[in-house]
Amino acid sequence: MGVREPNITIARPWCGHCKSLVPEYKKLGELVSKDPKLSSRVVIAKCNADTHRSLGEKYGVQGFPTIKFLPRGKAPTKDNAEDYSGARNAEAFIEFLKKKVESDSSFARVDALSDIASKFAASTDKAALIKEAKVTVEGLSGDDKANGEVYIKLMEKTVEKGDDYLTKEKARLEKLLLTGSVHASKVEDMSRKTSVLGALLGEE
After folding, report:
1. Which of 121, 131, 147, 197 is 20 to 30 A from 204, alpha carbon to alpha carbon?
2. Which residue, 102, 125, 147, sits at the end of a domain?
3. Are strands 42-48 and 5-11 parallel, antiparallel or unpaired?
4. Does 88 share its domain with 117?
């Protein structure tokens, strides 16, 4: 699943309610693909419940269509798959997804570096914290290691450019992301940096 947050509909092709949802779901896919911030972090998926009965059983599906939201970074289970109970139209779906993405403050954060990050902005010995962070990152793997490298790069950049770099760079990236002019291939990387900058500034 990586960093993406799937939104899944479990349906049956012959179901009238499922059929009526198809145009809205197609419109949702188009809206997500046009929004760089969403397209880099959200996957819209549809599942045929007759063909994949085990998936419906896994998530405790009782009726059709059922719409589930699966959070990023967790192995999907019945317990963490959230039922969507809002309006069944593309506009309501997209607002739901935007709120989920915006509230995901843990995106790109590394728990093993949280103590170091919380001390960084106010520290008078940033070099020592960078050294500690490098040792910690060496022991990580997967996404945590990749994200840990981002922490180190931004920490080193702060030492190079000055303490106000964190605030200025975060504001710059957030402004660019809000314009919607950033190419989709760069949005995920910029969102990752924004989140890590927030961690280094002590933001929750």
Report:
1. 131
2. 102
3. parallel
4. no
